[in-house]
Fold this protein.
Amino acid sequence: MPGTANLLTPIQINNLILKNRIVLPPLASKKATADGKVTDELLDYYRNRIGNGLIIVEHSYIDKAGMASENQLAINDGTKLDGLKELASLIKEGGSAAGIQLAHAGAKADPEITGCNSYSPSGIKPPGIEKDYKPEKLSKKEIDELLELYATSARIAKAAGFDLIEIHAAHGYLLNQFISPLTNKRDDEYGGSLANRFRIIGKVIESIREVIGDSFPLAVRLGSDDFEEEGLKPEKAAEGILPYLDSIDLLDLSGGLNGYGVLDEGEEGFTAYLADEFKNFISEDKLPPILIAGGIKTASYAEKLLVSEKAELIGVGRAQLKNRNWPDKALNQLNNN
């Protein structure tokens, strides 16, 4: 049937061809070692998740000071390389392309967990953090050092054999703290205007591109709605990212400072409206493929998003946590309808 073909249709992301439009998005497993190395338990978590066109490995910290939680996967130095090689190989042997998400929690990093001072664009914590600690404000020198951390992690990801890198700029993490007017009160070239707040994303993209080249697939997960009255709104997120779209191969739209907090209470496909906002604001010829994830449970809804051209890739996370055979089951359901 025509509907089945949409979910099964291959898609090219830069030089990478995905066998279908189903994505296992980054989901924190907390199965790494205390210092962020791959474990057998983490390998088992990703083993036999066949049927996905792309698997994006969970948020992996680029700096210990940006670790979001205990037993989070790391991609911050060469000691992690062998384990990451094994992980990327396992995913690809299962028939899926392997991506990995580079992350820094910024002010959401708890000093009690990291053993390091927490830092952020303006020393401001995003909403929802109850613990009493004061993040430090990043200096320009520290921002330059941050860009080097992203480059180092990208180099490790490429050496490990991953097919795609995703920059995490959503869910209240560090880059999201830069682009939101609520957490960025800087008065230099990285703060103030929308263009200045988004400048850091351009710099991160540039630093990573210098390492991976132009033909390596690069995605950005963009926090596009803070759900705060004075926060970042989808139209402004679209305007802010527009200058950098030529260097982005996949745009993964998600929640902003409040993460999934508000969205998670919604119905199936609770982030799909973001794709509408972006496609209304940005012309089709400028937009890279869009990935939408968020509460998608059924193949029929995934098909609906593709048929309506809201998105080009569909992320199915929690449904796959409950049933790792979701892709095959979903496609069988479509074929039998």
User: Anything to note?
Assistant: The domain at 2-336 is CATH 3.20.20.70 (TIM Barrel). The chain has one domain: 2-336. The radius of gyration is 19 Å.
